[in-house]
Amino acid sequence: MKKITLQQRRILLLLHILFAAIMFGVQVVFIILALTASVTDDPDVLHACYSIMHLLADSSVRASTIGTTVTGIALSMLTSWGLFRYYWVIAKEALTFVAILIGFIGLHEWTLRGISDHGSLTVHHTWLMVGITLQTLSIIIMYMLSVWKPGGKRKTPA
Fold first, then answer.
1. Residue 69: is its pLDDT beyond 70?
2. pLDDT tens, position by position, 13-26
3. I need a surface site. Which of 19, 59, 71, 121 has the fewest CB within 10 A?
4. What percent of the chain has pLDDT over 70?
5. Can you give the residue ranges of every domain in the chain?
6. How far, in Å, CA of 32 to CA of 37, rounded?
7. Core vs surface per residue 68-101: b (16+ CB within 10 A) or e
8. Tens of pLDDT along 85-138?
9. Which superkingdom, per the lineage (predicted)?
10. Secondary structure of the chain in the HEC alphabet?
């Protein structure tokens, strides 16, 4: 596959970083809203927190996850990194799969249940907090992998 120019690589990398920053920023908002929901006794505040989280799950989480994934795959395929040449790239791909599952399915479902079913809110809130924690950790680890690039290049079979 043809490699891209340095200028094209920089633009693609900038887009990738912007989508990743949006993804991380939304996670911070989720943490704040989930913590607020866990300590409030006001049903209106509780409903507002879950409604906002659900809106974010259906918009910013999806858009930033898709944007980060597409630009990440493009960077891998159009540069010397490759999709399976380096251990850190493979680890980021696995964590991206986790982020997609949690973001697209988990956060959407858990926030929707929190909005529609106030009777069992604690169960949904627990799963939501677990999901937010796993999502946040996976994003932080992906950032770390991008900076330190541990593990080096895979050995090619003889």
1. yes
2. 999 999 999 999 99
3. 59
4. 93
5. 6-148
6. 9
7. bbebbebbbebeebeeeebebbbbbbebbebbbe
8. 999 999 999 999 999 999 888 888 888 877 776 555 665 678 888 999 999 999
9. Bacteria
10. CCCCCHHHHHHHHHHHHHHHHHHHHHHHHHHHHHHHHHHCCCHHHHHHHHHHHHHHHHCHHHHHHHHHHHHHHHHHHHCCCCCCCEHHHHHHHHHHHHHHHHHHHHHHHHHHHHHHCHHHHHHHHHHHHHHHHHHHHHHHHHHHHHHHCCCCECCCCC
Residue corresponding to tokens 């908002």: 29
**What gap in Å lies between CA 98 and CA 91, rounded to an integer?**
11
Q: 17 vs 21, 31, 91, 130, 136, CA distance in Å?
A: 6, 21, 18, 25, 16
Who's near 88: CB < 8 A, 6+ residues apart? Answer: 145, 146, 148, 149, 150, 151
CB atoms within 10 A of CB 22: 17
